[in-house]
Design goal:
The chain is built from two helices and five strands, in the order ββαβββα. It is α+β, with helices and mostly antiparallel strands. Mean pLDDT is about 85; it is low at about 5-15.
């Protein structure tokens, strides 16, 4: 996806670290997993949300701090290259909408109730 602003074109993603520097992986995390097997270790607590996930971390469970608590993140192969903080959300999503959304939810709930009642009425008639 490309966004155009005047004569400049910016991509929707921005590289925060130059390629010549390489990925940032917190040294403390690497020390905690060095020489250990994922099955033997429990949840490894960390506050290093900015640390990128390296291939050595696959299989380990990290407790990533979200500002209030540590959320458990089990690292898989698809997560390599992403940051730990991406999998530990800091804000709780409630829902979109207001009055209109409540009306839609109420209609949906009523439809489910009527469907359940009709299914219940049909069951004894078949026996």
């Amino acid at each position: 996806m490309m966004v155009r602003t005047g004569s400049l074109s910016l991509f929707s993603f921005i590289m925060t670290r130059s390629l010549k520097k390489g990925p940032y992986v917190d040294e403390k995390l690497l020390k905690k997993i060095a020489g250990k097997r994922p099955i033997e270790t429990g949840v490894i607590k960390t506050w290093a949300r900015r640390s990128q996930i390296s291939p050595e971390m696959v299989g380990f469970a990290f407790g990533v701090h979200n500002g209030k608590q540590h959320l458990e993140v089990l690292v898989t192969e698809e997560m390599v290259g992403h940051r730990l903080g991406e999998f530990s959300h800091t804000k709780k999503f409630f829902r979109h909408g207001g009055k209109m959304q409540k009306e839609l939810e109420l209609k949906k709930k009523e439809a489910e109730i009527t469907a359940a009642k009709s299914a219940k009425a049909e069951t004894p008639a078949k026996k």
